[in-house]
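DM from R.C. (forwarded with permission)

"hey, sorry to bug you on a friday — could you get me a structure for this? deadline for the figure draft is monday and I only need the backbone to look sensible"
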Amino acid sequence: MGGALSVGVTGTVGVDGLVGVRELVGVRESVGVRELVGVRQPIGIQGSASSVTLNGSGGTNGSAYSMYGLVYSMGTWTQNGGMAFIKSGTKVNAFMLVNDVNQLQSMDTNLAGSYALGKSIDASATSGWNVANGVAAGFAPVGNNSTNDNASRFTGTLDGQGHTVNNLTINRPNSDYVGVIGYLGKPDTGSTGNLNVGSTGNLGLVGGSVMGHNQVGGLVGYNGGSISNAYSSAAVQGADRVGGLAGVSPGSITTAYSTGTVAGTGHDVGGLVGSNSGGIKTAYSTGAVNGTESVGGLVGNASGGSINNAFSSGPVTGETKVGGLVGSNNASLSTVYSTGAVSGSNDSTGGLAGVNNSTIDTAYSTGAVEGHDYVGGLIGRNSGNVNKAYSVGAVKGLDSVGTAFS
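My reply, with the result:
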């Protein structure tokens, strides 16, 4: 059986026996999974490569029954192949399967839905989508901020189940909130919207390119929810607040990385996140980053929050507030490092951070640093607290130059 399930519940056939199901009507295949039709009582279902849970009403007493290879006995469903079907009373979640790029695009018709990738998706066709005046705009980001509330934002969930979206194209240089998910928002209940692939899977954006204006990220333009176990290798371009994984993130990012190149013509440009005020934990970036102001190998502008257990290794180029890990830092940094070369044509250039106004604990940088004014092997300009940190890279500048701080 496949790694996920697609279940339709229709009709009013049967109440007796077998969790409210009398018979199978119109069995069909959906990604290697049979779909039960002809059920009066509601059934909830959740699946993975190793387990499935059913939840419904009804029941039976007496000896075991068998039906299409399923065996029911003493309140428990079992099937050969390591799958367990559990009787009524078990809490479950249901996902809508996404098996191709058209279904991925259709997520924008139900922005509060719960989705799961049923397999890796070839998105190459998006390079020719949405042509206007001879130019293809490509994939349309799922969710945006056009209404300034949740009516236009994606507040659902997307479970990658270890699959990838390959060779996606987004070419929207005049649009804000650009990524596979344009705006990942918070539901009206006050809880957090999630782009969450679970504890054992991951969701990857592999290859392709993403271009927008402001709030541009490979996977998410604006992250107001949570991202975990996710990565991107797409090339990302924009103006302000541009990141390899997310453009802006006041939410959380855990166990994530980006490897694609990132370029922004303005401020807040980072290898992983352009502008971050949330939490980042266990993350890294390796792609080259180029911007103007507040440019960092991992985060361009860390305006708050925290960054823990993270590193960057790609070369970073900008004008002012340029850092190997963070361009401008007002976050708490702990157990971090950078190894890429850093170049700033104006002021405040550092191997780890261009400007630091917060606390940095347990950190180092090894890349060569070159700038104009306020150039440091570790930090270009520092007014915060730094503990247990060092730098070993060559440092070159014209004014206020230091091996650690300028």
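R.C.: lifesaver. Residues 272 and 344 are 19 Å apart (CA to CA).
me: no worries. The helical segments are 101-105.
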